[in-house]
Amino acid sequence: MEEIKNKKSIKDLASQFNSDLVCGLSEEEVLKCREKYGANIIESKKRETIFVKFIKQFKDILIIILLIAALISIIIDPSEWFDSLIILIVVTINAILGVFQENKAEKSLDALRKMSSPNSKVIRNGNLLVIPSSEIVVGDIIVVEAGDFIPADARIIECSNLKVDESALTGESVSSDKEYIEEEITTGGLGDQKNKIFSSTFVTNGKAKALVVAVGMETEIGKIANMLLTNEDNLTPLQHKLVHVGKIIGLISIIICIVVFGMEVLTGVSVLDAFKTSVALAVAAIPEGLATVVTIILAIGVDKMAKKNAIVKKMPAVETLGSTSVVCSDKTGTLTQNRMTVVKVCTNSEKDVKNLSDEEKTLLKYFAICCDASISCVDGETKRIGDPTELALLDVCINNNIIYNDVKKVLDLPFDSERKLMTTVIEYKEKYLSITKGAPDVVFKITANSEILSQMIEVNKNMADEALRVLALGVKEYDYLPKEAELEKDINLLGLVGMIDPAREEVKESIKIAKKAHIKTVMITGDHIITAKAIAKNLGIMNDNDKAITSEELDKLSDEYLEKHINEYSVFARVAPKDKVRIVNAWQKQGAIVAMTGDGVNDAPALKNADIGCAMGITGTDVAKEAADMILVDDNFSTIIVAVKSGRGIYSNIQKCIRYLLSSNIGEVLTIFLASLISIIASVDLGVPLLPIHLLWINLITDSLPAFGLGMEEADESLMNEYPRRKDESFFANKLGLFIGLEGVMVGLLTLTAYLIGHFIYESQIIAQTMAFLTLSGCQLFHAYNVKSEKSVFSKNIFKNKFLNFAFVVGFILQMIVIYVPKLNEAFKLSPLSFDKLMICIGISFVTVIVMEISKLIKRISKKK
After folding, report:
1. Helix (H, G, I), strand (E, B) or coil at 150
2. Which of 88, 362, 452, 601 has its C-alpha lying 20 to 30 A from 808's C-alpha?
3. What percent of the chain has pLDDT over 90?
4. Active site residue 330
């Protein structure tokens, strides 16, 4: 693609493209330009096929070990194919669930996409045409007016009162004034390019003709999109921790396999049988249900989030928000409403816009009359066209039932950036009235009634200090229709209005909750620093000791200094896209898990670079949505706090599940290991307490059901009082690993006790194995309630989780079925137990509750001390 030398005059550029500034391109030149400079299409990241997604589900180390174990088992003894089949079924179901959830999220995202500029007006061969925006080429002459989206980057040829909303690109909520300048502007940022308009922004006022200088991936939007295509996805904290868990379990499995093989051979068991037992034990040591349980818990979390207006594109991203320690939030449209609103009015004294006097209503009416904006209802849909500042003036009249369109306008003197004034002349009581509005300092200079001038100057200063955008208005009566040269002189100053893009009402409470959860909220905006600080202080983001900094000041700081002092800053103003990435990186270097919220194209690189990016669903651009991990459908900052709570709850539930499942696996392995050890030391043939089919049944059926129930546990309110987890925090931190080990020893000893009773007292191997089988499964069913909460199992909320209650009942019934149903018990190599043996097993199983209650009591006493 040929490079465009953009630092040229407008005529030189037209010549380079063989375009005519009046007639545009010929059809022949259109084809040449498309060939040279490319099509007007923003590329998106190529999606993976379903097959690739399915294969990627098998990257987990636990899955790999299970598949290898299943393969070895079936090679060594093809007759034992049933165990391998069960493993393969579980692994496949887990992979299908993962693919299903990723596809579901992508479809939800597709439903949110909107065509920003389907058609555009161009001049070709001297004719004005309406064509699809994707067909525009470099060298085209485009025509835009109020309400139009801009389809490509272009240099202005001519314009009239042109204002463009560039908030999606720069973050600035106030429209930018544009003008014709022959030469290229080579200084300042995008917001300073007064003679250029950019793709995906839109015209709020005026009209223009412009020469297209960049399309598709070469536009400013395209360059940002390209950054997203080349940026690799990073693993989320949960993925890192599950990989860590998998490695630990994998290592333990291999060690167990080797040790048990050696012990079996030492006791005289054949090498083939010893090998089969050790492989079966290695399979048993891995919680086969773990991957499926975690996937389903995350899937449930994703569905819950969707019902609460958050679409998650990748399941582990739900948990990532739960570990977030910093939220870097865009101001415009995220913390604020992205809708300028009149909040102050002054005729005699400054006041809020409520309980308005007739004089104040007249002032607001005149402001609305002196506007080019319009609000209309077409086919039941409200259409708002014009500059946000002028739309705010119309809104305040509509909200206060002030009629402003009952006059006849006879003359308009449009606003321009040099005069900073706009004047409208209307018919008034058989005379003429000129209404002039504009920047206060300019209006004050042409004011005749100097007696109120000093008061208005003071009010203007106060409003500006509150970060309000201030407009002044004056009028003058004429007996005749005045000429343009007579206007805007010696006017009668009536008053001022102050407006701001107000904060969302619910955000302040959300930020309070975030602070309570030890999460720092940082405002990042393209707006002016005074406005940003005022909003930040109002919302509670900025405290007395916090600092605010502009992009210009930020550029002067070294990366080392910024990383060391990043926590001192709560507001970043006038930022460029590169600044946002730098800010996110600085926090990450401090070990923070960073969430970035935003809606504009300028937010996209930081959304991608953050640990989790949250794009807005309504106002968010397609580029931002593509970059994000999560999309907030309602554009509500408060949804982030709901997501944080959900994420913390899901992570807590996953920890409970893994604690529950691993303690069972440790108990299983310890039972067989100790039985083999006793056999060697005491020279007693104890046999094998649990067969591979018993272990697979318990791991896949008995354990998985209560694990699902634990995954449905509602997030405890106390979770939002805790500190976020550190990025480098082990999954087994806070003595979780120790508790899993001790609880596994408890389960193993209790299971072995039941086995020894059956072996020595009832002198039957099958009875002993049945008692071990029932005791092990019973221990796990009771233990599910132990790990449910740190509170006592005898508290009033013990049976609040109906899913866990259901799992307990079903799990117990299933154990009874495989033990007592003829033929089925034979298949499982079990024997029906008499009532006394059954009670012994249940009694031994219930010991887990007694031991855990004593442990919890000791913890509560030590915590009080």
Report:
1. coil
2. 88
3. 36
4. yes
